[in-house]
Amino acid sequence: MTTPLDHIRNFSIVAHIDHGKSTLADRLIQTTGGLEAREMKEQVLDSMDIERERGITIKAQTVRLNYKAQDGETYVLNLIDTPGHVDFAYEVSRSMAAVEGSLLVVDASQGVEAQTLANVYHALDANHEIVPVLNKVDLPAADIPRVKAQIEDVIGIDASDAVEISAKTGLNIEGVLEAIVTRLPAPKGNPDAPLKALLVDSWYDTYLGVVVLVRIIDGTMRKGQRIRMMASGAVYELDRVAVQTPKLIEVQALTPGELGVFTASIKEVADTNVGDTITDDRKPTAEALPGFRPAQPVVFCGLFPVDASDFDELRAAMGKLRLNDASFSFEMETSAALGFGFRCGFLGLLHLEIIQERLSREFDLDLIATAPSVVYEVALTDGETIALHNPADLPDVMKIEEIREPWIKATILTPDEYLGAILKLCQDRRGIQNNLSYVGSRAMVEYDLPLNEVVFDFYDRLKSISKGYASFDYKLDTHRVGDLVKLTVLVNAEPVDALAMLVHRTVAESRGRQMCEKLKELIPPHLFVIPIQAAIGGKIIARETVRAMRKDVTAKCYGGDATRKRKLLDKQKKGKAKMRQYGNVNIPQEAFIKALKMGDD
Ligand SMILES: Nc1nc2c(ncn2[C@@H]2O[C@H](COP(=O)(O)OP(=O)(O)OP(=O)(O)O)[C@@H](O)[C@H]2O)c(=O)[nH]1
Fold it and tell me: Are 523 and 490 in contact (CB under 8 A)?
């Protein structure tokens, strides 16, 4: 049975983190009976364990709901879930291209935040009709008139008929469903034209293999059909065509305006290009859809197994993760300090953290991560330009014409009282202020910042100086020439490649000094004196010394308590496992990350 176009509504929910997007999605599913009560786990759309634990949404998912509206008609509502975090902005925009409208969820006690803005701009870019929804009206701190005024002033959309709800208590969920039906446009499309479908997403399912999410623009997609991916030219026969409710339910066909999934014996997620146009192999459409730019990794770091014998296991685990995440890249690298490992590319810091955590949690791997680095463009004197993913690989300075670094456009919203400290933080990180305005009583600052100053701990610092009240969002801008130098750290006169970094010349000395001081605390005394030095090129700019000491942990155990002695020795052995033998110096694992924290309070 096909659904007529005017009985379909496709929408996404956009919100700042924690404003209640997932809770609302759960309510919509529950109210329309998409899942039986016993199947209803909290936040059903966030399917990965880490997503559920941290309460963040990583991978976009869809769900099809049947809603009997007040006009007596039954509508098919397709909700496409989108991640709210800045690292996944790319997934947000491509999901938005598959639907016609958005619910803009704003916490009525918090008001508009940085990601509210960023996400609503994606929706406006996709020409969405937008229905504002004020959530958490059950909270005593909810201030509906103030937040409505903010939405109108800052975003410039009419908020007079915003839907006021509590996703938590279930208040007025019906109002949201009615607004979807009456205020969002129905999709358009021609059922008689050749098949034209947008490839929105794909993922690997252990039982089904690669599952592809599509939005049908024109024509019909049915089981057994031979389809062609227009960009790659690959042809497949469809094994299964289904909708997600969110359970997978097989259907005869998908028609214009619908969102659905198919399987077709596709081996790898990498064989599917998000944004590609899918058509009928025998009766192809004349013109492909505009498509998307592929997501580019912007942050790189090295991941090394603590135990060198885990290398193959690490490679296999990364391969498995990549099956489901084409934006994660890795290639083998060797480090004098850390041995064999991988240079990995990520969409941003959260993405990095998630992958690292999944590797240790799901695959039980003990890893050392080196400092995250952005991608620099290095113009050489011979006219060539290289993309530098690892500061340790910087060519000889004599061969370098200039180094260009990526900049971002950042937007920060904060209560006024923290503004001074935040401006100082941005200034210290080489920021250039573009704008300062007010959203109600909150300041909105816009800065251009070098990504390499943000990549490590900017977000943590921002949260700590604003007691968690400031919100932050950014988008990548252009590369700009920077006066950057390579800072090298030498431990016992040997350069430690995993600690090499590119820094701006003006801060090189203070950063070098900080690193030496931190390492002095982190490297335990050995039987000999260990000099720790920071250098730019051949020039030493800072030095600390770890004094010699014999660490006899059993010295205190005079008397004959052999068990206690053994316990202490075991403990020491365990401690050793967490060290990296470097030359004849043991560097504790956490030193690699801790030494790089800037800590500029
Ligand atoms: N008091 C109250 N709390 C709510 C309401 N809706 C959601 N919450 C709570 O707010 C927190 C965040 O809700 P989520 O639904 O996880 O927020 P989200 O926007 O999906 O967050 P991300 O998935 O991280 O983007 C949770 O602790 C919810 O229980 C509401 O209407 N009232």
Answer: no
Mean pLDDT across 35-45: 50
Q: For residue 140, what are the CA distances in angstroms to 41, 124, 169, 330, 419?
A: 27, 31, 14, 49, 26
Structure token digits, residue 60: 């976009």
Decide if 354 contacts 50 (C-beta within 8 A): yes
Lookup: tokens for 566: 């053994």
Tokens of 47: 């399917």
Name, in order, each residue with C-beta under 8 angstroms of 67's C-beta and a sequence gap of 6 or more: 32, 74, 75, 77, 177, 180, 181
Measured from the Cα of 105, ligand 1's closest atom is 19
Annotated ligand binding at 18? The verdict is yes
Q: What are the angstrom distances between the C-alpha of 161 and each of 79, 133, 169, 170?
A: 21, 9, 21, 19
User: How many whole angstroms separate alpha carbon 592 and alpha carbon 421?
Assistant: 28
Rounded Cα distance, 159 and 163, in Å: 9
> pLDDT tens-digit profile of 148-199?
999 998 888 999 999 999 999 999 999 999 999 999 999 999 999 999 999 9
Q: Which of 356, 355, 339, 393 is nearest to 587 (CA)?
A: 339
State the Rg of the chain over Cα: 27
Helices (H), 339-399: 349-362
| Short-list 311, 60, 402, 391, CA closest to 201 | 60
Q: Whose CA is nearest to atom 28 of ligand 1?
A: 20
Residue nearest to atom 9 of ligand 1 (CA): 20
> What pTM was estimated for this model as a whole?
0.71
Q: Which residues' Cβ are closer than 6 Å to ligand 1?
A: 15, 17-23, 55-57, 84, 135-136, 138-139, 166-168
| Distance in Å, CA 244 to ligand 1 centroid | 23
Alpha carbon of 588 to ligand 1 centroid (Å): 39
- 20 marked as part of a ligand binding site: yes
Closest atom of ligand 1 relative to the 26 alpha carbon: 15
pLDDT-derived band at 562 (thresholds 50, 70, 90) equals: low
What is the predicted ipTM?
0.97
* Strand 74-80, strand 8-15: pairing: parallel
Residue whose tokens read 């801008």 = 477
